[in-house]
Automatic annotation (TrEMBL):
A Pfam family that the UniProt record links to this protein: PNPOx_N
Protein name (Swiss-Prot/TrEMBL): Pyridoxamine 5'-phosphate oxidase family protein
Source superkingdom: Archaea
Tagged with keyword Plastid: no
GO molecular function list: coenzyme F420 binding; oxidoreductase activity, acting on the CH-CH group of donors
Species of origin: Methanococcoides burtonii (strain DSM 6242 / NBRC 107633 / OCM 468 / ACE-M)
Protein backbone atom coordinates (compact mmCIF):
# COMPACT_ATOMS: atom_id res chain seq x y z
CA UNK A 1 0.00 0.00 0.00
CA UNK A 2 1.21 3.53 -0.76
CA UNK A 3 2.53 5.73 2.04
CA UNK A 4 1.15 9.10 3.15
CA UNK A 5 3.74 11.34 1.41
CA UNK A 6 3.26 9.49 -1.88
CA UNK A 7 -0.54 9.82 -1.72
CA UNK A 8 -0.31 13.49 -0.70
CA UNK A 9 1.90 14.12 -3.74
CA UNK A 10 -0.61 12.30 -5.98
CA UNK A 11 -3.37 14.49 -4.55
CA UNK A 12 -1.39 17.69 -5.21
CA UNK A 13 -0.66 16.61 -8.80
CA UNK A 14 -4.28 15.61 -9.39
CA UNK A 15 -5.48 19.03 -8.19
CA UNK A 16 -3.01 20.77 -10.53
CA UNK A 17 -4.35 18.89 -13.54
CA UNK A 18 -8.06 19.45 -12.98
CA UNK A 19 -9.91 22.74 -13.45
CA UNK A 20 -13.14 22.25 -11.48
CA UNK A 21 -14.28 21.14 -8.07
CA UNK A 22 -17.65 20.57 -6.42
CA UNK A 23 -17.68 22.47 -3.13
CA UNK A 24 -20.08 21.52 -0.33
CA UNK A 25 -21.05 24.15 2.21
CA UNK A 26 -23.72 24.32 4.90
CA UNK A 27 -26.24 27.16 5.09
CA UNK A 28 -26.88 28.99 8.37
CA UNK A 29 -30.11 26.94 8.54
CA UNK A 30 -28.10 23.71 8.34
CA UNK A 31 -28.93 22.84 4.72
CA UNK A 32 -26.21 21.45 2.45
CA UNK A 33 -25.38 23.15 -0.84
CA UNK A 34 -22.98 22.14 -3.60
CA UNK A 35 -21.23 24.71 -5.79
CA UNK A 36 -19.32 23.98 -9.01
CA UNK A 37 -16.14 26.06 -9.03
CA UNK A 38 -13.05 26.70 -11.08
CA UNK A 39 -10.02 26.63 -8.79
CA UNK A 40 -6.27 26.85 -8.56
CA UNK A 41 -4.08 25.00 -6.10
CA UNK A 42 -0.74 25.05 -4.36
CA UNK A 43 0.00 21.59 -3.03
CA UNK A 44 -3.19 20.41 -1.33
CA UNK A 45 -4.53 23.94 -0.70
CA UNK A 46 -7.18 25.16 -3.13
CA UNK A 47 -8.22 28.72 -3.97
CA UNK A 48 -11.26 30.15 -5.71
CA UNK A 49 -13.02 33.46 -5.98
CA UNK A 50 -16.63 34.40 -5.42
CA UNK A 51 -18.79 37.45 -4.86
CA UNK A 52 -19.40 38.72 -1.35
CA UNK A 53 -23.17 38.31 -1.77
CA UNK A 54 -23.19 34.67 -2.92
CA UNK A 55 -24.59 31.77 -0.92
CA UNK A 56 -21.17 30.12 -0.71
CA UNK A 57 -19.71 33.32 0.79
CA UNK A 58 -22.51 33.54 3.39
CA UNK A 59 -22.29 29.83 4.17
CA UNK A 60 -18.51 29.92 4.68
CA UNK A 61 -18.82 33.10 6.73
CA UNK A 62 -21.12 31.20 9.12
CA UNK A 63 -19.35 27.83 8.98
CA UNK A 64 -15.82 27.42 7.56
CA UNK A 65 -16.05 23.61 7.46
CA UNK A 66 -16.31 22.55 3.82
CA UNK A 67 -15.77 19.51 1.64
CA UNK A 68 -15.16 19.11 -2.07
CA UNK A 69 -14.63 16.56 -4.77
CA UNK A 70 -12.47 16.67 -7.87
CA UNK A 71 -12.90 13.93 -10.43
CA UNK A 72 -13.28 13.09 -14.09
CA UNK A 73 -16.36 12.33 -16.14
CA UNK A 74 -15.83 9.08 -17.93
CA UNK A 75 -17.74 5.95 -18.80
CA UNK A 76 -15.29 3.47 -17.21
CA UNK A 77 -16.61 3.05 -13.67
CA UNK A 78 -13.94 0.45 -12.89
CA UNK A 79 -11.17 3.05 -13.34
CA UNK A 80 -12.60 6.04 -11.45
CA UNK A 81 -10.02 8.32 -9.88
CA UNK A 82 -10.78 11.38 -7.82
CA UNK A 83 -10.34 13.31 -4.62
CA UNK A 84 -12.69 13.79 -1.71
CA UNK A 85 -11.35 16.50 0.59
CA UNK A 86 -12.47 17.95 3.92
CA UNK A 87 -11.09 21.26 5.09
CA UNK A 88 -11.38 24.72 6.59
CA UNK A 89 -12.18 27.67 4.37
CA UNK A 90 -10.98 31.20 5.05
CA UNK A 91 -11.10 34.55 3.29
CA UNK A 92 -7.73 35.73 2.01
CA UNK A 93 -7.02 39.39 2.78
CA UNK A 94 -3.20 39.58 2.72
CA UNK A 95 -2.16 41.51 -0.42
CA UNK A 96 1.03 39.48 -1.00
CA UNK A 97 -0.87 36.19 -0.73
CA UNK A 98 -3.61 37.53 -3.02
CA UNK A 99 -0.94 38.35 -5.61
CA UNK A 100 0.46 34.81 -5.43
CA UNK A 101 -3.03 33.33 -5.76
CA UNK A 102 -3.80 35.55 -8.74
CA UNK A 103 -0.67 34.20 -10.46
CA UNK A 104 -1.80 30.62 -9.80
CA UNK A 105 -5.24 31.44 -11.22
CA UNK A 106 -3.83 33.06 -14.36
CA UNK A 107 -1.50 30.10 -14.94
CA UNK A 108 -4.49 27.75 -14.86
CA UNK A 109 -7.01 30.13 -16.49
CA UNK A 110 -5.12 32.62 -18.72
CA UNK A 111 -8.30 34.59 -19.56
CA UNK A 112 -8.40 35.81 -15.95
CA UNK A 113 -5.52 38.19 -16.65
CA UNK A 114 -7.92 40.28 -18.76
CA UNK A 115 -10.82 40.40 -16.31
CA UNK A 116 -11.50 43.73 -14.63
CA UNK A 117 -11.00 43.94 -10.88
CA UNK A 118 -14.31 43.62 -9.02
CA UNK A 119 -14.19 44.99 -5.46
CA UNK A 120 -17.15 42.76 -4.52
CA UNK A 121 -15.14 39.59 -5.20
CA UNK A 122 -13.28 37.74 -2.47
CA UNK A 123 -10.68 34.99 -2.61
CA UNK A 124 -11.24 31.88 -0.54
CA UNK A 125 -8.58 29.43 0.59
CA UNK A 126 -9.39 25.87 1.66
CA UNK A 127 -6.77 24.16 3.79
CA UNK A 128 -7.29 20.41 3.99
CA UNK A 129 -7.84 18.44 7.17
CA UNK A 130 -8.52 15.01 5.61
CA UNK A 131 -8.45 13.63 2.08
CA UNK A 132 -9.37 10.49 0.23
CA UNK A 133 -7.78 9.59 -3.09
CA UNK A 134 -10.07 7.29 -5.05
CA UNK A 135 -8.41 4.74 -7.31
CA UNK A 136 -10.91 2.15 -8.55
CA UNK A 137 -8.22 0.61 -10.80
CA UNK A 138 -6.83 -0.94 -7.58
CA UNK A 139 -10.25 -2.33 -6.64
CA UNK A 140 -13.84 -1.15 -7.08
CA UNK A 141 -14.53 1.41 -4.33
CA UNK A 142 -10.86 1.63 -3.26
CA UNK A 143 -9.56 4.84 -1.70
CA UNK A 144 -6.48 5.93 0.20
CA UNK A 145 -7.04 8.12 3.30
CA UNK A 146 -4.64 10.80 4.54
CA UNK A 147 -4.78 13.40 7.29
CA UNK A 148 -3.30 16.88 7.02
Amino acid sequence: MACDPEIKERISEYLKKHPFLNLATISPEGNPMVHSMGFASSGPIVYFGTGNTTRKFRNIEQNPNVAFTVDEDGPDVMNITGIQMEGKASFVTDEAELGQIFQLMVEKFPFMAELPNNPDNVMIKVEPTKAFFLDYAVEFGFRYEVDY
